[in-house]
Amino acid sequence: MAPMENKNLKTYYSIKEVANMFNVAESLLRYWEKEFPQISPKTAGNKNIRQYTEKDIEIIRTIYNLVKVRGFKLAAARKVLAHNKDAVDKNAEVMERLMNVKEELKEIKRQLDYLT
Predict the structure, then answer these.
(1) Considering the entire predicted model, what is its pTM?
(2) 3 phi and psi angles, rounded to 5 deg
(3) At what angle do helices 54-64 and 74-83 cross, to 10 degrees?
(4) Which of 21, 29, 33, 56 could cross-link 52 (Cys pair, CB 3.0–4.6 Å)?
């Protein structure tokens, strides 16, 4: 039996955890839930505690990329999500990889600066 590759065993994430993932306020996530029907976290308990799945987080990642990284207005982001979600997902993935590479290069530069 092959070991699981980088699988997250967590089923649900709290709104606080998701907000921290994207460095945004919890209120922004609640607002996006109203603006984007694709985001539909499960609610639990009497206090309607939100429980986000990996699917919800992927949708939020896409919306974050469109709105915060690329500067789309909410109406434009809704239109893009409705018509061309696959292309948006690929672009978001590429942007995320590039941002990770950028951070790695910054760290290498810091280390080189330290050596000189």
Answers:
(1) 0.68
(2) -70, 155
(3) 120
(4) 56
